[in-house]
Design goal:
Protein name: Vacuolar protein sorting-associated protein 62
Number of helices: 5
Pfam families: Vps62
Largest sheet: 6 strands, mixed
Strand order of the largest sheet: 33-32-31-28-27-40
Structural class: mainly beta
Strand content: 35-45%
């Protein structure tokens, strides 16, 4: 986010010829196997067809000062195919190369007749010119004077029954031509929401600050049909929770023909499958699920009946239902227990779940890794670190990261790194790569959270240096997921294309629940510090996740919210 305290024309250098760098992956894309619509460049959304544009022409920038990389720039698409129309302009901070896109659209014949609220929309075209434009914001001195060469932000005024998809920006006060943009019929749109703030403009002569945000569909996840256009939202009076005056597209074509087929899925994993590095001191390594079962994992019942050894394929696990506490998985009680908790890196693999994202215009490939045991945490208090004896440990640990693939081209768009109770999306331009276009994932010591770069990450207060340590670094312990993986689910392909393993249907815990007095262990550590520091340290401890207060095995991948829903971001 960029905070600007004043706006004056003479503070803005002339960057009319400024052309941004566009991010490219380290290696060229391969020729993908043939299919229905994946990586074909165009995607049909029922009555409209869209093309992704990633080449832009600079319109106007803000906050350049002496370093253009500290500013924010606004762009219009270039190279729009004949017959397609712009839906809005694009904005991003200059500190990164161009990684975004704009969708341009044209109307196509539809085999469906959409009826909404009793009104037949078949008589209205899918796209229409705006009736006019509303000037949303520009800089003035409250005396009626406007500066040529400044930014002017325009909202298309849609005809009745239509919605605008984005704003237009000009570098002068001339109103844009009505033919420069198209509005979309309301039943072909979906609601969107602000995501990240890109720009804040504060001024001594403006009554309200002006803000610019990136946007995303409200309806996301595997069943979501919202499609982002790549535009931005801006306002000087909008408040969180209020409905936006622009929309995103909606894919009404249930066939999702741009999603990859099974052969293309394998090609994508072979090309992009990350290398997952484990810490050199990691002793709780991953294994395959079948190795875990074969070495003695047992099924326990709440009625205290006999513990049953699990079949190598998990065929004797109760499938379906919900996490009702009736069953759970545990380690054996014999001598196999000690060897089982350390895993088996040679057998380990990534379990891949492929699902639609953003209405089928992107594919999310969630890659799950299983560790038989999650080790105890390490507490960091400023320059000191304390290894905890039990806090944080539990039987069974399911972690994941997710590749987001653009279905227009097959490009890697970003990677989601799951980190305990949260996570983060990292753009493809900010990843580390090996062997061409394969991203690198760093798994933290003992806890197995995923990170994009080697570092010590603090779960707590990074500013104070107080919290749970997550140490991630490269070593000779790693999994190359491009070679060691198994596709376990891709529901959109149909029931018979990918056969889900039996263990995936187990909806209960993959470890027992044990509660212990973690507070007593933390109190011993707190007492080592001066009285004036103890209150702050206790406040940080109170914010640590509840999972640190006892042992509680996780549910399997299919019971997680992100199996059907979007990642937490």
């Amino acid at each position: 986010m960029l905070n600007c305290k004043c706006f004056q024309r003479n503070n803005l250098p002339n960057y009319s010829a400024y052309e941004p760098d566009t991010f490219s992956l380290p290696d060229p894309l391969p020729s993908w196997p043939p299919g229905q619509g994946f990586a074909c460049g165009r995607i049909g959304l029922s009555e409209i067809e869209v093309v992704k544009i990633s080449k832009f022409r600079f319109i106007w920038g803000y906050g350049f000062s002496q370093d253009r990389k500290k500013g924010v720039s606004f762009y219009k698409p270039v190279g729009v195919p004949r017959g397609f129309y712009c839906l809005g302009h694009y904005c991003q901070a200059n500190k990164h190369p161009i990684t975004g896109f704009l969708l341009v659209a044209r109307e196509v014949a539809s085999t469906r007749q959409e009826v909404t609220n009793g009104r037949n929309h078949g008589d209205l075209p899918a796209l229409a010119r705006p009736a006019d434009y509303t000037l949303v914001w520009t800089a003035d001195d409250q005396h009626g004077e406007v500066y040529e060469g400044c930014g002017f932000f325009w909202l298309p005024v849609p005809p009745e029954g239509y919605k605008p998809m984005g704003f237009l920006v000009t570098s002068n006060s001339d109103r844009p031509q009505l033919d420069e943009v198209r509005c979309v019929r309301s039943d072909l749109t979906d609601e969107c929401e602000t995501y990240r703030r890109i720009l804040d403009v504060y001024s001594t002569f403006l009554n309200f600050p002006f803000g610019v945000w990136s946007i995303r569909p409200c309806d996301r996840g595997m069943k979501g049909r919202g499609v982002p256009v790549g535009t931005f939202f801006c306002s000087s009076h909008w408040k969180p929770g209020e409905e936006l005056n622009i929309a995103c597209l909606k894919n009404l074509d249930s066939r999702l023909h741009a999603m990859p087929n099974l052969e293309q899925i394998h090609a994508i994993v072979h090309h992009y499958g990350p290398r997952v590095y484990f810490h050199p001191d990691e002793v709780y390594l991953p294994s395959s699920v079948s190795w875990f079962f074969e070495k003695g994992a047992v099924l326990c019942k709440a009625d205290n009946s006999d513990r049953v050894r699990i079949d190598i394929n998990g065929s004797n696990l109760p499938g379906g239902g919900m996490n009702d506490g009736a069953f759970w998985i545990d380690l054996p009680s014999d001598e196999q227990r000690d060897s089982l908790i350390h895993g088996n890196l040679e057998s380990a693999k990534l379990y891949v779940h492929v699902k639609p994202a953003f209405g089928g215009t992107f594919s999310d490939m969630a890659m799950w890794v299983f560790c038989p045991f999650n080790g105890p945490a390490t507490l960091k208090l400023g320059p000191l670190s304390f290894s905890l004896s039990k806090i944080g440990q539990h039987v069974g640990d399911w972690e994941h990261f997710t590749l987001r693939i653009c279905n227009f081209t097959g490009e890697l768009w970003g990677v989601y790194f799951s980190q305990h109770s949260g996570g983060e999306w990292v753009s493809a331009c900010d990843l580390e790569y090996t062997e061409g276009n394969k991203p690198i994932v760093y798994s933290s010591r003992n806890g197995h959270a995923s990170y994009p770069h080697p570092c010590t990450y603090i779960q707590g207060s990074a500013k104070l240096g107080i919290g749970i340590r997550n140490d991630a670094i490269r070593s000779d312990k790693y999994i190359s997921s491009s070679a060691r993986y198994e596709v376990v689910a891709a529901e959109y392909l149909g029931d018979d294309v990918v056969v889900e393993p039996c263990w995936l249907q187990f909806m209960r815990k993959w470890g027992p629940r044990l509660v212990y007095d973690s507070r007593a262990e933390l109190e011993k550590i707190i007492k080592r510090f001066p009285l004036r520091m103890r209150y702050s340290i206790e406040g940080i401890f109170a914010k640590l996740p509840m999972e640190l207060s006892g042992e509680d095995g996780p549910t399997g991948p299919k019971e997680k919210n992100n199996w059907v829903g979007d990642e937490r971001w």
